[in-house]
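Minutes, structural biology subgroup

Action item carried over from last meeting: produce the C-alpha coordinate record for DUF6879 family protein (Streptomyces nondiastaticus). EB confirmed the sequence was re-checked against the source entry. Recorded below for completeness.
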Amino acid sequence: MSQTDLAFADLLAKTRHSAVHLEMRDSYGIGEEAAEFEAWRSGWRPSPDPEAWWNEFHTMVREAAERGVVFRRARIVSEPVSDYIKYEHGCTYQNIAAGEVVRWLPRRKASDLTLPGNDFWLFDGEIIMWNHFTGDGGSVGPELDERPAVAKLCATAFDSVWDRATPHEDYRV
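Output recorded by EB:
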Protein backbone atom coordinates (compact mmCIF):
# COMPACT_ATOMS: atom_id res chain seq x y z
CA MET A 1 0.00 0.00 0.00
CA SER A 2 1.37 3.45 -0.91
CA GLN A 3 1.87 6.26 1.61
CA THR A 4 -1.22 7.96 0.20
CA ASP A 5 -3.24 4.76 0.65
CA LEU A 6 -1.98 4.32 4.22
CA ALA A 7 -2.83 7.92 5.11
CA PHE A 8 -6.28 7.53 3.54
CA ALA A 9 -6.93 4.22 5.34
CA ASP A 10 -5.93 5.73 8.69
CA LEU A 11 -8.16 8.78 8.24
CA LEU A 12 -11.08 6.75 6.98
CA ALA A 13 -10.87 4.37 9.95
CA LYS A 14 -11.44 7.38 12.24
CA THR A 15 -14.18 8.99 10.13
CA ARG A 16 -17.59 9.07 11.79
CA HIS A 17 -20.05 10.60 9.33
CA SER A 18 -18.71 12.07 6.07
CA ALA A 19 -15.96 11.92 3.49
CA VAL A 20 -16.05 14.28 0.51
CA HIS A 21 -13.62 14.34 -2.38
CA LEU A 22 -13.13 17.21 -4.83
CA GLU A 23 -11.25 16.50 -8.05
CA MET A 24 -10.35 19.37 -10.38
CA ARG A 25 -7.85 17.99 -12.91
CA ASP A 26 -8.61 16.83 -16.46
CA SER A 27 -6.07 14.03 -16.25
CA TYR A 28 -4.18 12.02 -13.68
CA GLY A 29 -1.24 9.67 -14.09
CA ILE A 30 -1.23 7.68 -10.88
CA GLY A 31 0.55 4.30 -10.73
CA GLU A 32 -1.52 1.34 -11.92
CA GLU A 33 -4.25 3.69 -13.11
CA ALA A 34 -1.90 5.18 -15.74
CA ALA A 35 -1.34 1.73 -17.27
CA GLU A 36 -5.06 0.95 -17.15
CA PHE A 37 -5.83 4.27 -18.86
CA GLU A 38 -3.39 3.44 -21.67
CA ALA A 39 -5.08 0.04 -22.09
CA TRP A 40 -8.45 1.81 -22.18
CA ARG A 41 -7.16 4.13 -24.92
CA SER A 42 -6.30 0.98 -26.91
CA GLY A 43 -9.85 -0.35 -26.64
CA TRP A 44 -9.85 -2.35 -23.39
CA ARG A 45 -12.87 -1.82 -21.12
CA PRO A 46 -13.19 -2.92 -17.47
CA SER A 47 -15.39 -5.87 -16.67
CA PRO A 48 -18.74 -5.18 -15.04
CA ASP A 49 -17.92 -8.08 -12.67
CA PRO A 50 -16.66 -6.64 -9.34
CA GLU A 51 -14.35 -9.63 -8.85
CA ALA A 52 -12.30 -8.32 -11.79
CA TRP A 53 -11.65 -4.83 -10.37
CA TRP A 54 -12.57 -4.71 -6.66
CA ASN A 55 -9.56 -3.61 -4.60
CA GLU A 56 -8.56 -2.41 -1.10
CA PHE A 57 -9.88 1.08 -1.76
CA HIS A 58 -13.34 -0.23 -2.63
CA THR A 59 -13.33 -2.42 0.49
CA MET A 60 -12.38 0.53 2.72
CA VAL A 61 -15.14 2.67 1.24
CA ARG A 62 -17.74 -0.10 1.50
CA GLU A 63 -16.87 -0.85 5.14
CA ALA A 64 -17.01 2.83 6.10
CA ALA A 65 -20.31 3.31 4.25
CA GLU A 66 -21.74 0.31 6.09
CA ARG A 67 -20.91 1.99 9.41
CA GLY A 68 -22.70 5.18 8.29
CA VAL A 69 -20.06 7.31 6.55
CA VAL A 70 -21.56 9.20 3.61
CA PHE A 71 -19.20 9.47 0.62
CA ARG A 72 -19.62 12.23 -1.96
CA ARG A 73 -17.22 12.82 -4.85
CA ALA A 74 -17.44 15.85 -7.15
CA ARG A 75 -15.41 16.29 -10.31
CA ILE A 76 -14.89 19.62 -12.06
CA VAL A 77 -14.12 18.94 -15.73
CA SER A 78 -13.36 20.89 -18.88
CA GLU A 79 -15.68 20.35 -21.84
CA PRO A 80 -15.37 18.82 -24.26
CA VAL A 81 -13.93 16.29 -21.82
CA SER A 82 -10.46 14.79 -22.17
CA ASP A 83 -9.92 11.14 -22.98
CA TYR A 84 -8.93 10.64 -19.36
CA ILE A 85 -12.27 12.00 -18.15
CA LYS A 86 -14.07 9.69 -20.60
CA TYR A 87 -12.14 6.80 -19.05
CA GLU A 88 -12.86 8.01 -15.52
CA HIS A 89 -16.55 8.45 -16.28
CA GLY A 90 -16.68 4.94 -17.70
CA CYS A 91 -15.18 3.48 -14.51
CA THR A 92 -17.24 5.50 -12.02
CA TYR A 93 -19.69 2.62 -11.60
CA GLN A 94 -16.93 1.11 -9.45
CA ASN A 95 -16.97 4.06 -7.01
CA ILE A 96 -20.75 3.88 -6.88
CA ALA A 97 -20.70 0.12 -6.24
CA ALA A 98 -18.39 0.72 -3.26
CA GLY A 99 -20.79 3.28 -1.77
CA GLU A 100 -19.95 6.70 -3.18
CA VAL A 101 -22.30 9.23 -4.73
CA VAL A 102 -20.63 11.05 -7.64
CA ARG A 103 -21.44 14.29 -9.45
CA TRP A 104 -19.83 16.17 -12.36
CA LEU A 105 -19.56 19.93 -12.87
CA PRO A 106 -18.47 21.49 -16.16
CA ARG A 107 -15.60 23.90 -15.41
CA ARG A 108 -17.39 26.81 -17.10
CA LYS A 109 -20.09 26.53 -14.39
CA ALA A 110 -17.47 26.87 -11.64
CA SER A 111 -15.98 30.21 -12.70
CA ASP A 112 -17.57 32.21 -9.90
CA LEU A 113 -16.85 29.68 -7.13
CA THR A 114 -14.09 30.05 -4.57
CA LEU A 115 -12.07 26.85 -4.82
CA PRO A 116 -8.86 25.67 -3.15
CA GLY A 117 -5.81 25.20 -5.34
CA ASN A 118 -5.61 21.43 -4.94
CA ASP A 119 -7.79 18.34 -4.99
CA PHE A 120 -8.70 17.14 -1.52
CA TRP A 121 -10.53 14.71 0.70
CA LEU A 122 -12.34 16.24 3.69
CA PHE A 123 -13.14 13.88 6.55
CA ASP A 124 -15.98 14.77 8.94
CA GLY A 125 -15.65 18.41 7.88
CA GLU A 126 -12.49 18.68 9.97
CA ILE A 127 -9.44 16.99 8.47
CA ILE A 128 -8.22 17.70 4.95
CA MET A 129 -6.01 15.40 2.97
CA TRP A 130 -4.63 17.52 0.14
CA ASN A 131 -3.70 15.56 -2.97
CA HIS A 132 -0.66 17.05 -4.68
CA PHE A 133 0.26 16.22 -8.28
CA THR A 134 3.03 16.81 -10.76
CA GLY A 135 2.30 18.64 -14.00
CA ASP A 136 1.69 15.35 -15.80
CA GLY A 137 -0.66 14.04 -13.11
CA GLY A 138 1.62 11.88 -11.00
CA SER A 139 1.08 11.91 -7.27
CA VAL A 140 3.67 13.60 -5.08
CA GLY A 141 1.92 12.45 -1.92
CA PRO A 142 -0.72 13.73 0.45
CA GLU A 143 -0.54 16.51 2.98
CA LEU A 144 -2.75 16.58 6.07
CA ASP A 145 -4.25 19.85 7.25
CA GLU A 146 -6.39 20.34 10.35
CA ARG A 147 -6.78 24.13 10.31
CA PRO A 148 -10.46 24.82 11.07
CA ALA A 149 -10.71 27.85 8.75
CA VAL A 150 -9.25 25.89 5.83
CA ALA A 151 -11.55 22.93 6.52
CA LYS A 152 -14.48 25.34 6.45
CA LEU A 153 -13.26 26.76 3.12
CA CYS A 154 -13.04 23.23 1.69
CA ALA A 155 -16.50 22.28 2.99
CA THR A 156 -18.04 25.43 1.54
CA ALA A 157 -16.25 24.96 -1.80
CA PHE A 158 -17.31 21.33 -2.02
CA ASP A 159 -20.95 22.13 -1.19
CA SER A 160 -20.98 24.89 -3.81
CA VAL A 161 -19.72 22.48 -6.45
CA TRP A 162 -22.08 19.71 -5.29
CA ASP A 163 -25.13 21.97 -5.50
CA ARG A 164 -24.39 22.84 -9.16
CA ALA A 165 -23.09 19.49 -10.31
CA THR A 166 -24.92 16.86 -12.34
CA PRO A 167 -25.47 13.40 -10.82
CA HIS A 168 -23.31 10.75 -12.47
CA GLU A 169 -26.24 8.91 -13.99
CA ASP A 170 -27.33 12.10 -15.81
CA TYR A 171 -23.92 13.41 -16.93
CA ARG A 172 -22.96 12.60 -20.52
CA VAL A 173 -19.39 12.72 -21.77
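Discussion: The two ends are 32 Å apart (CA to CA).
Next step: EB to file the record with the rest of the batch.
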